[in-house]
């Protein structure tokens, strides 16, 4: 056992950097993706990609195992390789008591953990990842269960939540907090640790060159970096060899400099797979990059799920979104996509609602504008993410955001905590976006 990673007894957790983590040798390493505790959750091609890259890198000198508390609770199929996730209604945290919605545990339960653990080598170290800050109750639950089963095994906590709120993460019972981010040294994530992955995940780049005031990409990845084409193709080929036929691109800037990487990638995918793969862009594409040629290439390569980033036609919001798209550019992009063969329902478009100081009327106008252009608006409720300028704006009005991540939950923040949009008005906007209101 590495002496720097012994189980800690009391006191604050230690801190290690990613370089130390990746230097582990001769150990049985268990990676854990915790369950989600929230009002709602769906598998939007959601995999713990950072953890999977780390496990693949550690394989060179260690034995690795995976406990994905979400994916291992699949209880039915959805479209494009995704799964329904088992959920159990649980008591709401105190700060949510006044919210008239049901709260659930999405994922495996305590008994399930013991069943899966029994089939794996006893770990020498446990790596727990984390995603949304307001999902920390599921992280704490996982750490508590693992500590009961393996009382002498050190638990390391990393991931997005631990990176954005390390002081809060230190309260959850882990022995060490992993500091900093690292670009994967492995050519592909360890997706073979899933018995039969329903889909693959791909990243052609890390970070984003834009600086939108609501987005934490620049906080998590200070340097924008594109990967070599051959590394991306190896990532796709490996997961396709496991049976994956749907692939989700996690990029924040997939189409940037498209002539240099994206177009050559599409050409290789078409030549190798001849239409056998279905591709998806859940994070949203930069509309300015979509012209007639780009739209044709997207369609011919097999991109089935197109998400477009418009955010708002309000000039102030557009400016805070790095001015990366203008209304006329959006209209032109949708026209090109429809001409390429996409249906209006394929052109779902993110519209932000609940930003600090945002005019509600502009949200309505943006929704109607998307519909007039032939797209389908998809309302995205604002979540104040630590480290972003908009978080600072929100925290000046609600200081408790700094200490209680549950308040940052996008599904309830606007209506119940910031009260920037009354629940009834928010429902009207949702109905308008769905085409159920005029």
Verbal overview:
The structure is a single chain. The chain is α/β, with parallel strands linked by helices and 438 residues long. The chain contains 16 helices and 19 strands. It has helices spanning 18-22, 49-58, 110-117, 136-149, 160-164, 166-169, 217-220, 229-241, 262-273, 292-301, 315-320, 327-340, 360-373, 389-397, 413-417, 423-434, and strands at 14-17, 28-33, 36-38, 63-68, 74-77, 83-85, 87-89, 104-106, 125-128, 155-157, 176-179, 200-202, 205-206, 225-226, 246-249, 278-286, 303-311, 347-353, 376-381. A 6-stranded parallel sheet has the order 1-11-10-9-2-4, sandwiched between helices. Strands 12-15-16-17-18-19 form a 6-stranded parallel sheet. Strand 9, helix 4 and strand 10 (155-157) form a beta-alpha-beta unit. Helix 9 (262-273) runs parallel beside helix 10 and helix 10 (292-301) crosses helix 12. The chain is globular. The model has no long low-confidence stretch (mean pLDDT 94).
How many beta-strand runs? 19
Q: What is the percent of helical residues? A: 25-40%
Low-confidence stretches: none
**Major sheet description:** 6 strands, parallel
Helical segment count: 16
Distance between the termini: 65 Å
């Amino acid at each position: 056992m590495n002496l720097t990673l012994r189980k800690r007894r009391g006191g604050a957790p230690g801190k290690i950097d990613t370089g130390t983590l990746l230097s582990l040798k001769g150990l049985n390493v268990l990676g854990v993706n915790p369950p989600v505790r929230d009002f709602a959750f769906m598998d939007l091609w959601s995999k713990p990609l950072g953890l999977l890259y780390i496990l693949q890198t550690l394989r060179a000198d260690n034995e690795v195992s995976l406990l994905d508390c979400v994916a291992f609770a699949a209880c039915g199929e959805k479209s494009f390789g995704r799964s329904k996730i088992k959920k159990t209604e649980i008591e709401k945290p105190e700060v949510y008591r006044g919210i008239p919605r049901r709260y659930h545990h999405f994922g495996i339960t305590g008994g399930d953990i013991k069943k899966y653990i029994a089939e794996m080598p006893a770990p020498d170290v446990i790596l727990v990842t984390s995603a949304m800050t307001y999902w920390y109750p599921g992280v704490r639950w996982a750490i508590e269960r693992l500590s009961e089963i393996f009382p002498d095994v050190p638990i390391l906590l990393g991931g997005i939540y631990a990176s954005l709120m390390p002081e809060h993460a230190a309260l959850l019972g882990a022995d060490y907090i992993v500091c900093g981010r690292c670009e994967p040294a492995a050519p592909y994530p360890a997706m073979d640790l899933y018995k039969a992955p329903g889909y693959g995940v791909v990243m052609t780049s890390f970070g984003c060159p834009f600086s939108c005031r609501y987005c934490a990409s620049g906080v998590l990845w200070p340097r924008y970096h594109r990967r070599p084409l051959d590394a991306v193709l190896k990532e796709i080929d490996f997961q396709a060899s496991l049976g994956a036929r749907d692939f989700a691109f996690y990029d924040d800037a997939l189409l940037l400099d498209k002539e240099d990487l994206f177009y050559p990638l599409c050409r290789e995918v078409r030549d190798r797979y001849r239409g056998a793969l279905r591709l998806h862009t859940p994070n949203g594409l930069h509309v300015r990059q979509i012209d007639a040629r780009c739209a044709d290439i997207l369609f011919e390569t097999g991109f089935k799920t197109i998400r477009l980033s418009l955010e708002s036609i309000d000039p102030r919001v557009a400016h805070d979104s790095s001015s990366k798209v203008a209304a006329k550019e959006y209209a032109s992009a949708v026209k090109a996509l429809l001409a390429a063969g996409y249906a209006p329902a394929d052109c779902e478009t993110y519209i932000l609602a609940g930003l600090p100081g945002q005019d509600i009327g502009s949200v309505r106008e943006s929704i109607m504008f998307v519909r007039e252009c032939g797209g389908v608006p998809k309302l995205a409720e604002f979540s104040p993410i630590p480290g972003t300028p908009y978080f600072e704006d929100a925290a000046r009005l609600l200081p408790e955001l700094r200490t209680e991540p549950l308040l940052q939950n996008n599904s309830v923040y606007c209506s119940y905590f910031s009260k920037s949009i009354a629940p009834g008005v928010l429902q009207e906007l949702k109905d308008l976006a769905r085409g159920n209101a005029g």
